[in-house]
């Protein structure tokens, strides 16, 4: 029996000082929650779903409750979950009125023969299996409404949006359980003022997330179009397969994305042996890792704080 590890992120972007403390508190709470699932014998898959649900439920983060609005003032949510043991995967994109898209993604994986459902079809599936539709105004914070009103008059490009403090980003989790199985989950509300129907990297297998027991699990965050172009999650694991550490694989892949398509982002990675890394090229990324009875966390570059995991 090996010791289980769980890592979470709350998005890589220019996190403003006024929400930085809530971002750190949120990832720490989600890591504790996911870690408690592992401690009680839950699988890596159960743990990443639980951790991401906690982040979706926290209005500080752009996923589930607290999501950003598209150009029409609507919430469209994306999520993915991958089981590294079997490569089973479930994803949803452009879903509306769902508080926990990560759980809907898991239902796609377990209750259908498909990998991804989108838009109306994903919502019809949610209704058919008893997911409760949440009114849009319950998912949108006052802060987001104000930000959307403030910035909808600007026709900024997606990259420009991302490089300002106007945008939130994705949440995610990776884990390895005591049986050595890995899993990942990623969830997002996308980029503020995005075109209707825009899908970023988050729900796309090999881009926003990937997990394979032979190499590890990854969840990505950052400029979605850039992550898609370099298939970031799979790129990181290909470096791991070639013998690189998870930290070096993350650093090299993010550097490549910056050089090749001028995109910034962040990643969390865990290997089947319990090696882990949280790496980013944006100004900040809120992250936390539960490993060997210690809770590690940070938000600024090179920051690695820690406290005892036992509450």
TrEMBL record:
The keyword NAD does not apply. The active site is at 170 (nucleophile). It is an enzyme of class 3 (hydrolase). InterPro entries: ASRGL1_meta, Ntn_hydrolases_N, Peptidase_T2. It holds the Pfam family Asparaginase_2. CDD domains: ASRGL1_like. One of its GO terms (biological process) is L-asparagine catabolic process via L-aspartate. Substrate binds at residues 198-201, 221-224. It catalyses: Cleavage of a beta-linked Asp residue from the N-terminus of a polypeptide; L-asparagine + H2O = L-aspartate + NH4(+). Its EC number is 3.4.19.5, 3.5.1.1. It comes from the Eukaryota. The keyword Hydrolase applies. Keywords: Autocatalytic cleavage, Hydrolase, Protease. The record marks 169-170 as: Cleavage. Belongs to the Ntn-hydrolase family. PANTHER family: ISOASPARTYL PEPTIDASE_L-ASPARAGINASE, L-ASPARAGINASE. This is Isoaspartyl peptidase/L-asparaginase. It comes from Poecilia reticulata.
């Amino acid at each position: 029996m090996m010791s289980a590890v769980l890592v979470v992120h709350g998005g890589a972007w220019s996190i403003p000082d006024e929400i930085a403390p809530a971002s750190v508190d949120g990832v720490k709470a989600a890591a504790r929650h996911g870690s408690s699932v592992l401690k009680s014998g839950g699988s890596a898959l159960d743990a990443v779903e639980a951790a991401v649900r906690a982040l979706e439920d926290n209005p500080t983060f752009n996923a589930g409750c607290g999501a950003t609005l598209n150009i029409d003032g609507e919430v469209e949510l994306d999520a993915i979950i991958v089981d590294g043991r079997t490569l089973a995967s479930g994803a949803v994109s452009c879903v509306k009125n769902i508080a926990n898209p990560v759980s809907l993604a898991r239902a796609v994986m377990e209750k259908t023969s498909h990998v991804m459902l989108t838009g109306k079809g994903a919502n019809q599936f949610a209704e058919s299996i008893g997911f409760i539709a949440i009114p849009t105004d319950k998912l949108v914070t006052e802060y987001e409404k104000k930000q959307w009103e403030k910035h909808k008059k600007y026709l900024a490009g997606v990259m420009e949006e991302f490089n300002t403090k106007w945008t939130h980003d994705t949440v995610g989790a990776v884990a390895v359980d005591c049986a050595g199985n890995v899993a990942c989950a990623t969830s997002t509300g996308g980029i503020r003022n995005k075109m209707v129907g825009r899908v970023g990297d988050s729900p796309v297998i090999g881009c926003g997330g990937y997990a394979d027991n032979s190499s590890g699990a990854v969840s990505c965050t950052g400029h979605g179009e850039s992550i898609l172009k370099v298939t970031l999650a799979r790129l990181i694991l290909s470096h791991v397969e070639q013998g690189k550490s998870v930290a070096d694989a993350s650093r090299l892949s993010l550097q490549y994305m910056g050089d090749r398509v001028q995109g910034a982002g962040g990643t969390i990675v865990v290997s089947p042996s319990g090696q882990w890394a949280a790496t980013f090229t944006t100004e900040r990324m809120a992250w936390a890792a539960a490993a060997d009875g210690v809770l590690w966390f940070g938000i600024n570059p090179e920051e690695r704080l820690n406290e005892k995991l036992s509450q």
